[in-house]
Design a protein that fits this description.
alpha/beta, Rossmann fold, Hect, E3 ligase catalytic domain fold, 4 domains, 3-stranded mixed sheet, 15 helices, 19 strands, 48% helix, extended
C-alpha cells in the first residue's frame, strides 16, 4: 500500500536561501523518497527565514498547517532533512508525539524515523530536540561573538542599510562564498539626516515634532508612509551617523528593549567615509535626548508621589510620624511635613542620652500657626479613631480564614506534587541513560559514552536542584502549618479592635489610618478628621 509523503524544508535566515529557494534540502528529500518504493511524494511545506529556536510551535504557521492537514488525514508521512528542521527546542518533541498520535510517521533523512510509541523513543526524541536547542544556543553565541569582532574592526555585519546610506559590493567574499557588502553615503538622504539633527539641537524639537515638520515639508520618508517618531528616534540615536558602527543597541526579551548607550559595542575606530554629522553634533543630540528623558521620568515620579499623597497611599510605612501624608494645614491647604529633631547630651556619669521630639510643620509657615507637636496631634487623632473602631460590629473571620487555609494548603500541595513528579521523571531519565552506557561503550548506540555521561551529569544537577526545592517547600509547609494552628487560636477569639489599634506599632497604625481616613485638617484649636467610611458600613 502506498503512503503519501510530504516534505518540510526550512532555513532560519535569508542568507541561507539560494535564489529565494532551498534546493539542496529538496534534492536530498526527493532522493530519499525515491529509495522507498512504497512512498509517493505528495507536496512540500517550506519555511523561508524562520527560526526554529526563537519561535514556538504556535508561532510557526507552517507547523500549524501541517497539524491541521494531519488531523484531516491528508498524508501519511512527514519527511525532513534533520530533526532540527522541525525544531530547536525541547517542546518540539511533543509536536512529533502529536503527529504520531494522529497516525503520521515522522522521518528525517539523517536520523531515521522519530517514534514515540515506547518510553525510550520519547526520551530519545526529547534528547534530540534538547541537543538541537543546545546547538542553537552555541551557534547564537558564536554568531554574536563574530559580530562583535566584525563591528569592532569596522565591518558592516549585514541587514538593511540605515537611512542615508546604501549597500554596495565590498569586493570581499565570505566563508560561505557570498559577496560581502559595505555602506556608502547617499548624499541626498544624508542631507535629510543633517536636517533632523539640526531640528533636534537648534530648534529643540522632539521626535514627534520633527516627524511632523518633515511631513509638512513633504520630504520622502524611508518607506512610502509618512515620517514617524520611532524612525526619528532611530536616526537620532544611531552612532553610524558620526562614523561608528554599533552593536547591542537593543535586546530581545519578549519584545525589543532599547539599551543604555554605555552598554553598546562600538567600532574601535571612526570610519571617516561614513560620517554624516560631526561627533560633537551627535553627542549634543544625545545630551538633549537624555536630559529630556530624565525630566520626563522625574515628572512621572512626582506625579506618582502626588497621587499617593492625594489618595493617602503611604509611600513608606517607616518613620515615627503616623499622620504623614494625611494631615494638612487648614490655612494654606498644603500637607504638613516632618519637622522632628533629636537632642543629644551626656550626663554627669558619662552616659549618652537622646530625646526625640516629633513635630508636624506647615511648609508655608502660615502665621496663624505653623507647628504642631506629635503628641498633641496624634493623641487626639488616635483617640478619635479608637472610638470609631470601638463602634464597629464584631466580625467573625473564622470561616474566611479556614477557606483561605484550605486554598493555600491545596496550592502548596499541588506545587509539591509537581516537584515530586519532575523529580521522578528525571530519575527515570537517568536510569534509562545509565542502562544505555554499555551499548554506548560498544558503539552500538546513537550517542557516545562521553556524551551519555555528560547528559547524566546534567540530569543529576537538575535532580539535586529539585531535591533542594522540594525540601525547602516541605519546610515551608511545616512552618505554615504551625502558623495556621496559632492563627486558628487567634481567630477563635473575638478581637477587641480598639485595643488592637492602641497596641499596634507605628507601621500598622499608618496602614490602618490610610485605609480609614480621607484627610485630617488642622488649624489653631481645631482638628477636622474626615473618614472614608462610617460605622454603619460594617453593621
Amino acid at each position: 500500500m502506498y503512503k503519501k509523503v510530504r516534505t518540510l524544508l526550512r532555513v532560519s535566515s535569508k542568507q541561507q536561501l539560494h535564489d529565494d529557494d532551498i534546493p539542496i534540502q529538496r534534492a536530498e528529500a526527493m532522493q530519499y523518497i525515491a529509495g522507498r518504493p512504497e512512498w509517493v511524494f505528495d507536496q512540500e511545506y517550506i519555511e523561508k527565514a524562520v527560526s526554529a529556536y526563537k519561535n514556538t510551535v504556535e508561532q510557526r504557521e507552517v507547523l500549524q498547517r501541517i497539524l491541521t492537514d494531519a488531523k484531516n488525514r491528508q498524508f501519511d508521512v512527514l519527511l525532513t532533512y534533520m530533526s532540527d528542521r522541525i525544531g530547536r527546542q525541547e517542546e518540539y518533541s511533543f509536536y512529533v508525539a502529536a503527529l504520531n498520535q494522529l497516525g503520521i510517521e515522522v522521518w528525517t533523512i539523517k536520523d531515521g524515523q522519530l517514534k514515540t510509541q515506547e518510553h525510550i523513543d520519547k526520551l530519545l526524541n526529547y534528547i534530540r530536540f534538547w541537543q538541537n536547542e543546545g546547538e542553537s544556543k552555541k551557534t547564537s553565541m558564536r554568531v554574536k561573538d563574530t559580530q562583535k569582532e566584525l563591528v569592532k574592526s569596522g565591518k558592516f555585519v549585514g541587514g538593511r542599510a540605515p537611512f542615508g546610506y546604501q549597500l554596495i559590493p565590498s569586493g570581499m567574499i565570505s566563508s560561505h562564498g557570498r559577496l560581502l557588502k559595505k555602506l556608502e553615503i547617499v548624499e541626498e538622504k544624508a542631507e535629510v539626516v543633517r536636517t533632523i539633527y539640526h531640528l533636534a539641537i537648534h530648534h529643540g524639537m522632539g521626535y514627534e515634532k520633527i516627524a511632523k515638520e518633515l511631513n509638512r515639508q513633504k520630504i520622502p520618508s524611508i518607506t512610502t508612509d509618512k515620517w514617524k517618531s520611532g524612525t526619528i528616534r532611530s536616526i537620532l540615536t544611531n552612532p553610524i551617523y558620526m562614523g561608528y558602527l554599533a552593536l547591542n543597541r537593543r535586546i530581545h526579551q519578549g519584545g525589543y528593549i532599547h539599551q543604555d548607550r554605555k552598554n553598546w559595542i562600538y567600532s574601535d575606530k571612526q570610519l571617516p567615509e561614513l560620517v554624516i554629522v560631526p561627533q560633537h553634533t551627535w553627542e549634543a543630540a544625545q545630551k538633549i535626548r537624555e536630559a529630556r528623558k530624565a525630566k520626563i521620568n522625574a515628572s512621572r515620579e512626582k506625579a506618582s508621589k502626588e497621587y499617593e499623597m492625594q489618595h493617602h497611599i503611604p509611600f513608606s510605612a517607616s518613620g515615627k510620624l503616623a499622620l504623614m501624608g494625611l494631615v494638612c494645614c487648614g490655612y494654606c491647604g498644603k500637607n504638613l511635613k516632618n519637622g522632628s529633631y533629636c537632642n543629644h547630651w551626656t550626663t554627669k556619669t558619662g552616659e549618652n542620652k537622646t530625646a526625640y521630639t516629633g513635630r508636624y510643620l506647615c511648609p508655608s509657615k502660615c502665621p496663624q500657626r505653623s507647628c504642631y507637636s506629635q503628641t498633641y496631634l496624634e493623641n487626639i487623632v488616635f483617640e478619635t479613631v479608637e472610638d470609631f473602631i470601638a463602634g464597629l460590629k464584631p466580625i467573625n473571620l473564622t470561616e474566611e480564614w479556614l477557606e483561605y487555609k484550605r486554598s493555600q494548603t491545596a496550592k502548596n500541595e499541588k506545587r509539591l506534587k509537581e516537584l515530586q513528579n519532575k523529580l521522578q521523571s528525571i530519575q527515570n531519565d537517568i536510569h534509562t541513560l545509565e542502562e544505555k552506557i554499555p551499548d554506548a561503550i560498544r558503539e552500538n548506540y546513537c550517542f557516545s559514552a562521553d556524551k551519555l555521561s555528560s547528559m547524566i551529569k546534567e540530569k543529576e544537577a537538575k535532580k539535586q536542584q529539585l531535591y533542594k526545592q522540594t525540601n525547602q517547600l516541605k519546610n515551608q509547609l511545616f512552618l505554615k502549618e504551625k502558623q495556621y494552628i496559632q492563627a486558628e487560636k487567634t481567630f477563635s477569639l473575638t478581637p477587641d479592635w480598639k485595643k488592637e489599634f492602641h497596641l499596634a506599632d507605628i507601621r500598622v497604625k499608618k496602614m490602618l489610618l490610610s485605609s480609614l481616613l480621607e484627610k485630617i485638617t488642622v488649624t489653631e484649636g481645631n482638628i477636622y478628621i474626615q473618614f472614608k467610611v462610617c460605622p454603619e458600613d460594617f453593621n
